[in-house]
Automatic annotation (TrEMBL):
Gene Ontology terms describing biological process: base-excision repair; mismatch repair
Cofactor(s) the record lists: [4Fe-4S] cluster
MF terms (GO), sorted A to Z: 4 iron, 4 sulfur cluster binding; 8-oxo-7,8-dihydroguanine DNA N-glycosylase activity; adenine/guanine mispair binding; metal ion binding; oxidized purine DNA binding; purine-specific mismatch base pair DNA N-glycosylase activity
Region described as Disordered: 1-20
Keyword Mitochondrion: no
Main EC class the enzyme belongs to: hydrolase
Domain called HhH-GPD: residue spans: 56-208
Annotated family: Belongs to the Nth/MutY family.
Name of this protein: Adenine DNA glycosylase
Catalysed reaction equations from the record: Hydrolyzes free adenine bases from 7,8-dihydro-8-oxoguanine:adenine mismatched double-stranded DNA, leaving an apurinic site
Organism for this UniProt entry: Okibacterium fritillariae
Enzyme Commission designation: 3.2.2.31
DNA sequence: AATACGTGGCC
DNA sequence: TGGCCAAGTAT
């Protein structure tokens, strides 16, 4: 009799019978050997640091985030420190990370954490979701990575790995909490530490091996069980992603020009200076109004300043 | 549900 | 060159 009677099936293996091959075990093992050395994986990294990193990582590449994150945490080591600064300083420190509303939202979240949670980043997903700028991904990421709670964490990397390895599709369909969370839950190990490592590992796999454009399947821990690979990498036939609009000449572009100007000075930016940023007066006015409406620019006597 | 929202690197 | 992509959220 083999050792199966003496070594019971692991939790992960137990899922196998109803849910296909075990995805978690090879990913956890791979992650233990291949995890990048990133700031938020350092021992002693705080929950606040995790929250800040997750805000910055929303749609912005890791390499661009790291220097800004380190500056940010040196300047504002706690939520209360950030809450005590003007929001405009957060926008300035955000620099070129893009989507500067996130800086405003992060500042607002810091105020909320200070007021509602005594300055301690909450671990509860629903309390995190109630904070400004925190959605389904970030709430779970903070709860899991900062506090070790057991939840599925689903980002674009995770969705892509599951689409390929489990569903046999080259790309995931449109994001859907209704489908994405159950799909990840079905793969999640029962053990707390394993669940955390699996969440981090599958995200890392999507980020550095199972990438969108050039997957390195020969070095993938799932190469023997990946359904997309087994099927010969069929073209994706599902719903196409909405085409990203051209940036050059867009309203976003003009907003970006104005924001760069506001960040680079502590003096009000005059209407004349703003007028010099872009030839189309109507578009410039539209961008400026939008920024004021968003709270990123504030009109003063002399011109516009950060909040 | 579709769209707006920055900035830059990569092939 | 230019389209695609990047740890999403709010509306």
């Amino acid at each position: 009799m083999p050792e199966s009677s003496e070594s019971p099936l692991s939790d992960a293996a137990a899922h196998e019978q109803s849910s296909g091959p075990d995805v978690a075990t090879p990913i956890i093992a791979w992650f233990a050997e291949n995890a990048r050395d990133l700031p938020w994986r350092r021992p002693g990294f705080t929950a606040w640091g995790t929250l800040v990193s997750e805000f910055m990582l929303q749609q912005t590449p890791v390499a661009r985030v790291i220097p800004r994150l380190e500056e940010w945490l040196a300047r504002w080591p706690t939520p209360a420190d950030l809450a005590a600064s003007p929001p405009g300083e957060a926008v300035r420190a955000w620099a070129n990370l893009g989507y500067p509303r996130r800086a405003l939202w992060l500042h607002r979240a810091a105020v909320e954490i200070t007021e509602r949670h005594g300055g301690v980043v909450p671990s509860d997903v629903d309390q995190l979701l109630a904070l400004t700028g925190i959605g389904d991904y970030t709430a779970r990421a903070v709860s899991v990575f900062a506090y070790g709670l057991r939840h599925p964490v689903v980002d674009t990397n995770v969705r892509r790995v599951i689409a390929r390895a489990v569903d046999g599709n080259g790309q995931p369909g449109p994001p859907s909490a209704k489908r994405d969370l159950p799909a990840m839950t079905a793969l999640l190990p029962d053990d707390l530490a394993d669940a955390r490592a699996f969440n981090a590992g599958i995200m890392e796999l999507g980020a550095i091996r199972c990438t969108a454009r050039s997957p390195q399947c020969d070095d993938c821990p799932l190469r023997d069980i990946c359904r997309w690979r087994a099927a010969g990498y069929p073209e994706y036939t599902g719903q196409k992603k909405a085409v990203q609009k051209k940036y050059e000449g867009s309203d976003r572009h003009v907003r970006g020009l104005i924001m760069a100007e506001l960040r680079h000075t502590h003096r009000p930016v005059t209407p004349a200076e703003i007028a010099g940023l872009w030839p189309d007066v109507d578009q410039l006015q539209r961008a400026l109004s939008g920024l004021v409406a968003d709270g990123l620019a504030v009109p003063e006597d002399e011109g516009y300043v950060l909040p």
